[in-house]
What we know:
Blueprint: H1 2-43, E1 48-59, E2 65-75, E3 80-90, E4 95-102, E5 108-115, H2 126-129, H3 163-181, E6 193-195
Parallel strand pairs: 1-6
Antiparallel strand pairs: 1-2, 2-3, 3-4, 4-5
Amino acid sequence: MLLVLTGVAVVMGGILAFVNHLTEGPINEQKEKALADGIKAVMVCDDLVVSKTDEVKQNDPKGKELVYIIYQIKDAQGNDLGAAVESTTGGFGGDLKVLVGFDPEGKILGYTLLEHAETPGLGAKADKWFQKGQKGDIIGKSPAEPLTVSKDGGQVDAITASTITSRAFLLAVNNAYNAYKATPAADGNTGATKQIDN
Length: 198
């Protein structure tokens, strides 16, 4: 009986490994397509080129290292459009990962949620709440002066009954801005890694 169970476990493990290998490529392609679509959405432009990708590392106030990926964006003629920045913070239900588009002056062009574990119907509303024309509209604002919720004396309306998610989202946007501003727009290095401390 022990040999039969061991045999079944080995065969099933082999089948799972094979299926994982088969699906790995399509899953990665889907992630790349989602990222490309996200960049176009946050930069509010379809005709663009990712001219450079940088990685910026910053330490949060507790000393935890945070990594930001900055996609420098140009149009088809080579004009600088700004950057799309991936930023992750801890939300109410887990990590909250956003992609934020900035123009060359640092104003927010758009954003999209890449990952979240927020409560459906409450914190999950972050995907729409801070968009243009909505109650917490941040589009066109510059986080040079950090964006905060009105409950904390700031200028952005928090999601109703989801202040923790709103704070986490705005922190991700503020951190994305700081990472973007810490990266030279054109230093001639592709894939450079920059380290700065908050």
